[in-house]
Amino acid sequence: MSENNNITENLDGMSNFLYDIIAKDIADGKYKEVCTRFPPEPNGYLHIGSAKAITINYLAKKKFGGKFNLRYDDTNPAKEDEEFVRSIYNDIVWLNESEPDNVCYGSDYFDKCYEYAIKLIKDGKAFVCDLSADEMTEYKGDFNNPGKDSPYKNRTVEENLNLFERMKNGEFPDKSKTLRAKIDMTHPNMNMRDPVIYRIMHTEHYRQGNKWNIYPMYDYAHPMQDAIEGITHSMCSLEFENNRPLYDWFVNNVGIEESKKPHQYEFAKIRITNTVLGKRTLIKMVETKVVDGWDDPRMPTLSALRRRGFTPSAIRDFVLKAGVSKVYNNVDIKLLEFCQRTELNKTAKRKIAILEPIPLVITNYPENKTEYFDVSNNPEDENSGTRQVKFSKYLYIDKSDFEEIPPPKFFRLTPGGEVRLMGSYVIKCDKVIKNPDGSIKEILCTYDPETGGKNPPDGRKIKGTVHWLSKNNAGKININLFDYLFTAEIPDDENFSDSLNPNSKLEYKDCLIEKSVLELDMGERFQFVRMGYFYKDGKYDRTYNRIVTLKDSYKP
User: Fold this and answer.
1) Which residues pair with 361 in a beta bridge?
2) pLDDT-based confidence at 260, cuts 50/70/90?
3) Residue 300 pLDDT more than 80?
């Protein structure tokens, strides 16, 4: 897939504190070319929170020129899977509307990471430790009390080299030994208290097979990978701010040239109302079948948003409008809907769909006559033109547009009442025919032949307008209407089931749509008149998902 020029953001006017840092570095001649990266762990699907990190890094490349790398942080083989590798790649290509400049794998740097670890040992800056995980926690101390050195910290360089090689060769059981950095067990930053660099894992790696019996920890591998790839600005979420001194320690102690040393910068993650983004919670929701998989259109994953019909440009717009800072804040999910609705209002073609069809017969209309009325494809786009819709004796209207005993201010069809069929004639309800169970079989109406696309000549006012389809222009579809998966504005990740919305998905079978929609390509988004914006579900034939509703009181 070649570079796509659909990125329409105003890159010159785009500003945040991260881009200010990059601009200054370029102005000072610190770097000739910017190189950013997104380093996901392939143990789940990317979500809307991931989109913030991807967008920040990718648009930095677009704004300043340079490269954007996708790098899989595949240093923990116990949790990684090829399914996640594929989904991550597809999501990033979709969101950025282009391929990454490089697709990299942390596991491809294992030899180099091992080489750097050997240097640390030889320089007396790393040692093999036999403490168990519980003992290490005990020795580490806490924020109020300093830690104490491991009894194995003073092993000789020769002994450490021997033990580390034997760890690599698989001579010791899992968790029996670790390689740790020698820093300072009294350091006020807990991350600097002789952190683990390598652990023993006799687990087959999906790319490396059984080559390795030891695997580097993320805090060690990540800065090494950044340095190897020539990353200039390692931008990550704020949770890693306290890890930055350790990041710098590794970079400064393994022999990396000064000009090639990467630097880490942090920004606040995005938090969205009525949504959970914790990976463990999302995994649990999938495994317990609360949702129908990672791409269930109610999920916050990028694959789910894509399946539901959200566009990459709307998601990027949402990220930019939500802002980039070092302060956590909760972003209203309605902002995402606003961004998508604003875009689709300008671009989506209008089509007529009927959620719950009721047959309607125009008794005084000729049996074999068909007329055509011009209808706008999109009144917001003067270049979209018009289309012709068929009108005949046998029609359908929506169940919600008829009431035998209407409530106050009900301006749609009622017994003895008149309405306009959108874009065509005024009709009057004369009789309701019912099935044995009391449901409506059909509505019998008469039409005023003088009102085709114009007001009644006698000046009477017609307050209501309803949409309709001719029987010979109606194809069957299924429609899914979605609401938020959680009723709570801030759902509890641990007890997420307490606020699950039982009406988050409403399925309607045997709905009707203009036949032309069924002949169009998969990628088009439509406004179904009076219902919202819709997109064809890629998994199920003739099924359309509502992306967002037509209107909302939300204002950004």
Assistant:
1) 394, 444
2) confident
3) yes
